[in-house]
Amino acid sequence: MTLIELIREDVVKVPLKSKTKHDAFRELLEVLKNAGKISNSEVVFHAIIERDDQLSTAIENGIALPHAKTTEVDRLVLAVGISPAGIECSSHDGELSHIFFLLLAPPDQSGPHIEALSEISRATKSSAFRRLLLASQSADEIVELFCDE
Question: 120, 105 in Cβ contact below 8 A?
Answer without folding.
Answer: no
